[in-house]
Description:
The chain is an alpha+beta fold. The protein is built from 11 helices and 5 strands; from the N terminus they run αααααααααβαββαββ.
Amino acid sequence: MRGIRAGPPLATVRRMDWPRIARAADAAVVTALVVSGQVSVWTADSGPLAEDRPVHALLLAAVTVPLYVRRSHPLSVLLLVLGATFVQFQLGGAVFQPWFAVLLGLYAVAAHAALREAVVGGVAVAAMVLAVDVPKLAAGDPVDEIFPAWFVLAGTWGLGRWIRHRHRVTEQLEARAATAERESAEQAARAVEDERARIARELHDLVAHSMGVIVIQSQAGQRSLDTRPEVAREALASIETAGRQGMAEMRRLLGLLTGAADRTVVPQPRLAGLGELVDRVRAAGIPVELTVDGEVASLPAGVDLAAYRIVQEALTNVLKHAGPATARVLVRAGCGVVDVEVCDDGRGAASPGFGHGLVGMRERAALYGGTVETGELPGGGYQVRARLAVDGTRA
């Protein structure tokens, strides 16, 4: 429905609410101690509390109010609570709030302070308890009424340290998860960049080849239009075929970028279709001798496509740079490798070793553990030799 926006996921809401709930519960507990302490003082009918209400009210405030900031200043709060509690005990007036305040302060210093401060806080609590309990034991108080408090205090300190350790482990796991997520996103971005680079090479290969054929055929058709119309018609037909095939492959590759639903335009070219590629080059005016040796039909699809594209790019360079020339294509598959050789007897490449085409050939070969060697021949012409590993290991 319009006007209604979906909120954040329930798990996210809960994750965001927990800190606020914890702070509210913490403040509620401390407020309960503060209020109950003051009520105990101002409602006492007799005893030390009733005899000196302002002093006891001030001491109970010093015991309970600092607990609001015990998470940020744990050791300071604990020492203040211990001092006020000890004075309160010396003045008399038994109330429960100082005992709970000491437990909360001890837990806070164990859970939120470094080890040194936690040890100092634990020693301070032990010293105060000894100062209180030793006179009791000397006066003959039963041991079983005193020692349980020691176990409670030691357990509280240990629980705080364990909780601190668990929090640190959780933070480390969250940091590792964030790092892994970031690395995964970076790897995905690199994969997208690699895929776009591959598609760019594919587009370069097919556009360069198609345009080379079209340019050569248009020149031949223009020269033959008046004197040999049948040659001109063949050139126009070759231009039409090259244009249609180029557009079909370009549509397929652009579909990979745009996510188009139509994936049935044309299949990936394979070495089995080299005859059609050579026929188009021949129709453009370059005689080509093709030799295929070995079982190329059983090659892995990636190696098959890479070898085909290398031949295509090499023949495109012949069309663009060799001038009047003849070419020879040799593809040999066997012993776990595919050898590709394209030679011509023309004037050679205009800029040997440069351009996206030669870079694309080397990258395709490297992807399958292969190499590409290019260069001018001693007697004139140019040669492209490539070797690809069928299993992807170094050829």
